[in-house]
C-alpha cells in the first residue's frame, strides 16, 4: 500500500468534513461534497485491491447522487413540490451512506478495500451525508420516512449479516445497522447522535487497527490475535461486545439512553422493533468471537513462528480511545 498518498489526501478529506459544519448554503455543501469525493477517490486509486470497474462504480454512484442533490436543492425554492424535492435529496444522501435499498455498491467496494480505506469509508465518509440529512430532517415528512426506513434497514442488514464469513462484508452490514441507529438518534437529539457516532468511531478505530495489524480478513483467521497477544484478544472482545450492545459496555449504555429518550416519542411497537433489530445483530457480532472462544491452541502451535513477527499494537492509541469513550459516556449520563 502506498502510504504517501495518505499524507496529502487524508488531511484534505478531514478538512472537507470540518468545512461542512460551517457551510450555510446547499451549493456550498455540494462543492464540499465534491472535493471530499475526489479526495477519497485519490486514496482508493492507490489501493491495489481495487479494480478499475470498482473504482468507476464508486465514482458514478457518488457523482449521480451529488447531482441529484444539487438538482433538488435548486428546484426546492422555485416549484411547489417541496416534499418531492426533499425526498430526492433524502434518497441521494441515503445512497451515499450505502443504506438499503441502495447498499449493493457499498458492499462491493467495502469487501475489496484495504483496512485503512474500510475505516475511512465506514466512518469519515459518513459525516457529510449525515450533516446534510440533519438539515432535511427538520421536516416532518422526512422524519417519518427515515424512521420507518431505518428500522427496516436495520432488520434486513442484521439478517443478511448472519451468514457471512468475510470480515469486511460483516463490518459493511454492521456499519449499516449502526448508521440506522445514528440516523434515528439524529431525528430526536443531535447531541445524542454526536456522542454515539464518536463512541462508534473510537471502537471501530481500535478494532480495525487490530485487524489491519494482523492482516485478518476472514473469521477463521481471527484466532491469530488470541495466539499472539492476550491483551489484544481481550481488547478485541471488548470492542465487539460494545458493538453488540452487551451490558455493561458502552454500546449498551448508549442504546439504553436512546431507547429511554424515544420512549416518550414513539409507539411501543416501534421500540420493540428496534430492540429486536439489536438482538438479531448480536448474533453476527458473537460469530466474530465464537472461533476465538472455541479455539484449541494446541493445534495452532505451528503458527507461532509466523505471528510473533507481527508488529506490536500501539497501546497509547488504546488508552486514549477508551478514556475518550468513558468521558463521553459520563457526559451523556450526567
From TrEMBL:
Q: Name one Pfam family in it.
A: Proton_antipo_M
Instruction: Name where it mostly resides.
Output: mitochondrion
Query: Which EC class heads this enzyme's classification?
Result: translocase
One Gene Ontology CC term in the entry? mitochondrial inner membrane
As for membrane topology, the entry says:
Multi-pass membrane protein
Q: Which GO terms describe its biological process?
A: mitochondrial electron transport, NADH to ubiquinone
> Keyword Transmembrane helix, does the record have it?
yes
Transmembrane ranges, per UniProt, are 6-22, 29-46, 66-91, 112-132, 169-188, 194-212, 233-258, 264-290, 313-331
Keyword presence, Electron transport? yes
The residues covered by the NADH:quinone oxidoreductase/Mrp antiporter transmembrane domain are 23-280
Any one GO MF annotation of this record:
NADH dehydrogenase (ubiquinone) activity
Keywords tagged on the record: Electron transport, Membrane, Mitochondrion, Mitochondrion inner membrane, NAD, Respiratory chain, Translocase, Transmembrane, Transmembrane helix, Transport, Ubiquinone
Query: Known catalysed reaction(s)?
Result: a ubiquinone + NADH + 5 H(+)(in) = a ubiquinol + NAD(+) + 4 H(+)(out)
* EC number, as in UniProt: 7.1.1.2
Location in the cell reads: Mitochondrion inner membrane
Sum up the protein's function in the record's words.
Core subunit of the mitochondrial membrane respiratory chain NADH dehydrogenase (Complex I) that is believed to belong to the minimal assembly required for catalysis. Complex I functions in the transfer of electrons from NADH to the respiratory chain. The immediate electron acceptor for the enzyme is believed to be ubiquinone.
> What does the similarity note say?
Belongs to the complex I subunit 2 family.
Alphabetical list of PANTHER family matching this protein = NADH-UBIQUINONE OXIDOREDUCTASE CHAIN 2
Q: What's this protein's name?
A: NADH-ubiquinone oxidoreductase chain 2
Amino acid at each position: 500500500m502506498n502510504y504517501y498518498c495518505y499524507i496529502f489526501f487524508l488531511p484534505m478529506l478531514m478538512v472537507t468534513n470540518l468545512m461542512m459544519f460551517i457551510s450555510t448554503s446547499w451549493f456550498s455543501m455540494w462543492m464540499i461534497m465534491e472535493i471530499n469525493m475526489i479526495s477519497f477517490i485519490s486514496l482508493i486509486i492507490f489501493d491495489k485491491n481495487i479494480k478499475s470497474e470498482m473504482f468507476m462504480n464508486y465514482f458514478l454512484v457518488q457523482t449521480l447522487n451529488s447531482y441529484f442533490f444539487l438538482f433538488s436543492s435548486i428546484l426546492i425554492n422555485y416549484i411547489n413540490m417541496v416534499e418531492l424535492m426533499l425526498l430526492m435529496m433524502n434518497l441521494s444522501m441515503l445512497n451515499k451512506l450505502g443504506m438499503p435499498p441502495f447498499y449493493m455498491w457499498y458492499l462491493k467496494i467495502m469487501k475489496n478495500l484495504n483496512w485503512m480505506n474500510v475505516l475511512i469509508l465506514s466512518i469519515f465518509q459518513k459525516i457529510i451525508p449525515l450533516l446534510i440529512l440533519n438539515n432535511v430532517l427538520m421536516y416532518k415528512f422526512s422524519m417519518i420516512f427515515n424512521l420507518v426506513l431505518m428500522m427496516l434497514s436495520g432488520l434486513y442488514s442484521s439478517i443478511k449479516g448472519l451468514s457471512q464469513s468475510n470480515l469486511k462484508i460483516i463490518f459493511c452490514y454492521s456499519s449499516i445497522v449502526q448508521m440506522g441507529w445514528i440516523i434515528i438518534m439524529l431525528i430526536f437529539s443531535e447531541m445524542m447522535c454526536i456522542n454515539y457516532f464518536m463512541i462508534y468511531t473510537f471502537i471501530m478505530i481500535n478494532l480495525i487497527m487490530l485487524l489491519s495489524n494482523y492482516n485478518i480478513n476472514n473469521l477463521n483467521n481471527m484466532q491469530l490475535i488470541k495466539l499472539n497477544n492476550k491483551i489484544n484478544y481481550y481488547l478485541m472482545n471488548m470492542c465487539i461486545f460494545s458493538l453488540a450492545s452487551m451490558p455493561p459496555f458502552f454500546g449498551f449504555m448508549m442504546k439504553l439512553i436512546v431507547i429511554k429518550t424515544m420512549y416518550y416519542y414513539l409507539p411501543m411497537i416501534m421500540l420493540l422493533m428496534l430492540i429486536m433489530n439489536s438482538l438479531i445483530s448480536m448474533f453476527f457480532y458473537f460469530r466474530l468471537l465464537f472461533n476465538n472462544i472455541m479455539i484449541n491452541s494446541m493445534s495452532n502451535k505451528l503458527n507461532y513462528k509466523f505471528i510473533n513477527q507481527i508488529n506490536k499494537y500501539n497501546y497509547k492509541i488504546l488508552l486514549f480511545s477508551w478514556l475518550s469513550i468513558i468521558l463521553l459516556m459520563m457526559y451523556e449520563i450526567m
